[in-house]
Write a structure and sequence with these properties.
By secondary structure, this protein is of the alpha/beta class. It folds into 2 domains: 3-183, 3-Layer(aba) Sandwich (Rossmann fold); 244-365, Dehydroquinate synthase-like, alpha domain. It has 14 helices and 12 strands. The strands form 3 sheets. Strands 1-2-9-6-5-3-4 form a 7-stranded mixed β-sheet, sandwiched between helices. The protein has a 3-stranded antiparallel β-sheet with strand order 10-11-12. α4 packs across α5 and α13 packs across α14. The radius of gyration is 20 Å and the shape is globular. Bound molecules: nicotinamide-adenine-dinucleotide and zinc ion (ZN). Zinc ion is lined by residues 146, 194, 252, 268, 272.
Length: 375
């Protein structure tokens, strides 16, 4: 069956009741229809397409044509691909470009790319003229299952990741799984780490799909749908991360510390995979998680080609994590897995962090660190 036929057969729509409320549409071949899909939700004449230097040659023309055919004036801007672009200098250039292009308050910004493009474009859309309409067209698995939904946008500061940003919910998300076919394998695996995170949080239905290798095959539409449904539910209950939404940070305290210590050379999902492994081992050592479930989590990461160890010492990880924005006063909230579909938010004094991380690094009670998968 060709992609177009497959696309017609399988289109999923998930409604997210946050911001003004919006639909996430998942299917194959959707970028060629983005103009008609977006016309009902965008009132203005102009669409500012923000993409990056890798995605532009692959998909910009098709997206622009579809938007132009639906009657939009299309202007585009390609940022340099990569996390290093997530900074205020790029935001300033982008905002100046919006103004020079005559983008008005009733117009819209559309991101075409991965989480980096989505976070930058969303932030710029959130502050330009105090907020213009925003749409996400994610082109990585990570952005499809996580970053494009929920309205968190922002950039990094030298003090840490995502330290400057705004909540700005999109008017719509169009997720075309056929764009994922051009993803390099390591970038695809990056998204799988977030899928595994969502599987641990949401329960057996999704987690069991992560226990064998996830590839760019047909069930991706089902997997993305399940991840978006879970994220939508959490975001609807706690849009501004007052409590419940913090669960989505599973593996991210250590993950962000690793990203930072590596100077952002370790990809986000690969850092999160290590973070999930470390916190799961610590949870087992502290008696939150059974050895059996720990084994399943480590094995799901390994089967998907993701790392489960880190070269950084517990003290380095703790120091980097303490400057992360998720710290509150003298305590830090960690997401502790207790089982599949059962994670808890636990506050720890920051001076206990190093000890907790060292439990996760030593793999207390397991031989998870040896990479043989023979647990
Ligand atoms: N806002 C949120 O809620 C949220 C959630 C999770 C992650 N994030 C952020 O997302 C970012 C990571 O996102 P990412 O993994 O998508 O990274 P990314 O945007 O850097 O994309 C990874 C690489 O893939 C390339 N690429 C994108 N689509 C492609 C395609 N279809 N074919 C070939 N190459 C393609 C990009 O140019 C880039 O080089 C991080 O900055 C992270 O903080 C945000
Ligand atoms: Zn993440």
């Amino acid at each position: 069956m060709n992609m177009a036929a497959k696309g017609r057969e399988k289109i999923r729509e998930i409604y997210v009741n946050a911001g003004g409320g919006y639909k996430v549409t998942v299917g194959a071949g959707l970028i060629d229809k983005c103009g008609e899909l977006l016309r009902p939700v965008l009132a203005g004449d102009t669409v500012m397409l923000v993409t990056d230097t890798n995605v532009a040659p692959l998909y910009l023309k098709r997206v622009s044509s579809s938007l132009a055919n639906a009657g939009f004036r299309v202007v585009s801007y390609a940022i340099q691909a990569g996390e290093a672009s997530k900074n205020m200098v790029v935001i300033t250039s982008l905002l100046e470009f919006f103004a020079d292009s005559g983008l008005s308050r009733s117009d819209a910004v559309v991101s075409l790319g991965g989480g980096v493009v989505g976070d930058i474009a969303g932030f710029a859309a959130g502050v330009y003229m105090r907020g213009v309409a925003f749409v996400q067209i994610p082109t990585t698995l990570l952005a499809s299952v996580d970053a494009s939904v929920g309205g968190k946008t922002g950039v990094d500061l030298s003090a840490g990741k995502n330290l400057a940003g705004v909540f700005h919910q999109p008017r719509g998300v169009i997720c075309d799984v056929s764009c994922l076919e051009t993803l390099p394998q390591d970038v695809f695996a990056d998204g799988v780490a977030e899928v595994i995170k969502t599987g641990i949080l949401s329960g057996a239905e999704l987690f069991s799909l992560c226990e064998s290798r996830i590839d760019k095959s047909e069930n991706l539409i089902d997997i993305i749908e399940k991840c978006v449904q879970y994220k939508a539910k959490i975001v609807e209950e706690d849009e501004r991360e007052g409590g419940l939404r913090k669960l989505l940070n599973l593996g991210h305290t250590v993950g962000h510390a690793i990203e930072r210590l590596s100077g952002y050379t370790i990809l986000h999902g690969h850092a999160v995979a290590r973070g999930i492994a470390v916190i799961s081992r610590a949870a087992a050592a502290l008696g939150y998680l059974s050895e059996d479930v720990l084994r399943r989590i480590i094995s799901a990461l390994e089967v998907n080609g993701l790392p489960t160890t880190t070269e950084y010492a517990a003290a380095e990880l703790a120091a980097a994590a303490i400057s992360d924005k998720k710290r509150k006063g003298g305590t830090i909230t960690l997401v502790m897995p207790r089982g599949i579909g059962d994670c808890a938010l636990v506050d720890y004094p920051v001076d206990e962090l190093e000890g907790i991380f060292s439990l996760g690094l030593s793999g207390a009670g397991t031989n998870a660190c040896d990479g043989t998968g023979a647990l």
